[in-house]
Design a protein that fits this description.
CATH topology: Neuraminidase
Order of helices and strands: HHEEEEEEEEEEEEEEEEEEEEEEEEE
CATH architecture: 6 Propeller
């Protein structure tokens, strides 16, 4: 979102299924893709460069004194995740074929493609990849080769994860292992629901893997989503999942997604778990032992997702549109056509001491980019000194957005 997300595609899926017209669904999908500003299948740059967002002879510290420096690390790119040593990051980028790949980059922008042209992994969309804490394995979202609407490249985008499974690979991208096996809808009139997986996260010790699963499309909105978990086991050099189970199913609302482990027994999640509109999702802490759910933001008028947990203080950075000049029209189900602004905010793990961290949309701020900007999925470096995030630059009109996604690197004055 934006990460390219299920919000963009859900009206298309429902239209195609209800009307029984794959051609009509394809036309609406094409419109949705253009409107949402999904990254085009542009030819990747031969020499990725690091570009300063802020200019001038002095280092830009941003409006918030916590921010020391801001750079664009990769463009295009999205969903960065750190290696355990803090020297490299995984991220997604669309290739010449229009499908996303998993790339590994260092802090100077030098990259290695881990999935493109590899025989051991599917060659549709691959991404949303995370390192195992050991650094030996990577888990990613990979689209299956054959499914309903397979020619539409947006379905399996790693930020959406429809028709996809979780896979593991070694750090070099030379060996691959399938971890999940969800039912796949093959035909327009098939009875299998449109399912998908997205947002894998490891526990701090690497023993557990959690992810988000779309398991049903019948909810009147984005479909039904839940959080699953399993033990991550490596035997004879082959990773696999054991004791797969569902750990969070919304009692109110229909959408939930995992953001990370606060500790072995508590998850940070986002969703409409208080029964609010899907566009008004909040940040929650879910206790695996008791099932208790605590709302950290309680702002049903704002979209708050894409969060990350700092390694030392357990402070939480999250995206929000609370400062946006544009109010989302909830009667328009295609949110992706609407102008939006989002920035990162910071709070304690108890939801206290909220403060704005970035000012990308504030004209008087050093980090202002000259127009509408959104932020999305992010992650702290292992030492808490850097925040790697997804930055969207809106090149659209005043009434319709057209987004280009980039990987942004925010250096903090002090580690969190």
């Amino acid at each position: 979102m934006t990460r390219i997300s299920h919000r963009t595609i859900e009206p298309v899926l429902q239209f195609g299924i209800k009307r029984g017209s794959l051609a009509s669904a394809g036309l609406l999908l094409a419109f949705a893709v253009v409107s949402s500003g999904c990254p085009k299948a542009a030819r990747p740059p031969s020499r990725p460069s690091v570009t300063k967002v802020c200019s001038g002879p002095e280092r830009c510290r941003g409006r918030n004194p916590r921010v020391d420096d801001i750079t664009i690390l990769q463009q295009p790119g999205a969903r960065p995740h750190w290696a355990p040593d803090g020297r490299q990051l995984l991220y997604d980028r669309r290739g010449r074929d229009g499908y996303a790949d998993v790339l590994l980059t260092d802090l100077k922008g030098r990259t290695v493609n881990l999935t493109s042209g590899k025989r051991g992994i599917g060659q549709k969309n691959n991404g949303n990849a995370v390192f195992h804490p050991s650094g030996d394995y990577i888990v990613l979202v990979s689209e299956v080769s054959e499914h309903f609407g397979a020619r539409n490249k947006i379905y399996g985008d790693p930020g959406l994860g429809l028709f996809s499974n979780l896979w593991a690979m070694n750090r070099e991208g030379s060996k691959y292992w399938q971890l999940t096996d969800i039912p796949i809808r093959k035909h327009l009139f098939g009875k299998t629901p449109v399912m998908g997986v997205v947002n894998p996260h490891f526990s701090q010790d690497g023993s557990k893997l959690m992810w988000t699963e779309r398991y049903d499309g019948k909810s009147g909105g984005w479909g039904k989503w839940r959080i699953k978990m399993a033990s991550f086991v490596v035997a004879d050099g082959r990773p696999r999942l054991e004791n797969e189970r569902t750990v969070v199913v919304p009692k109110k609302g229909n959408y939930v997604t995992g953001m990370g482990f606060l500790d072995p027994d508590r998850l940070l999640v986002a969703g409409n778990l208080s029964g609010q509109h899907e566009w008004g999702m909040d940040q929650y802490v879910y206790d695996l032992r008791t099932g208790d759910l605590r709302n950290l933001t309680s702002t049903p008028d704002y979209w708050e997702e894409g969060s990350a947990i700092s390694p030392k203080s357990k402070r939480i950075v999250y995206m929000t549109n609370r400062d946006s000049r544009y109010e989302l029209d909830r009667s328009n189900r295609n949110w992706s056509t609407q102008p939006m602004e989002r920035d990162y905010w910071l709070m304690t793990r108890d939801g206290e001491d909220k403060e704005r961290l970035t000012y990308f949309n504030e004209p008087s701020a050093p980090e202002f980019l000259g127009g509408r900007t959104i932020v999305a999925a992010c992650e702290f470096s292992p030492d808490g000194r850097y925040l790697a995030g997804t930055l969207g630059i809106d090149h659209g009109t005043g009434k319709q957005r057209q987004m280009t996604l980039k990987v942004v690197l925010i250096r903090l004055k002090e580690a969190l």
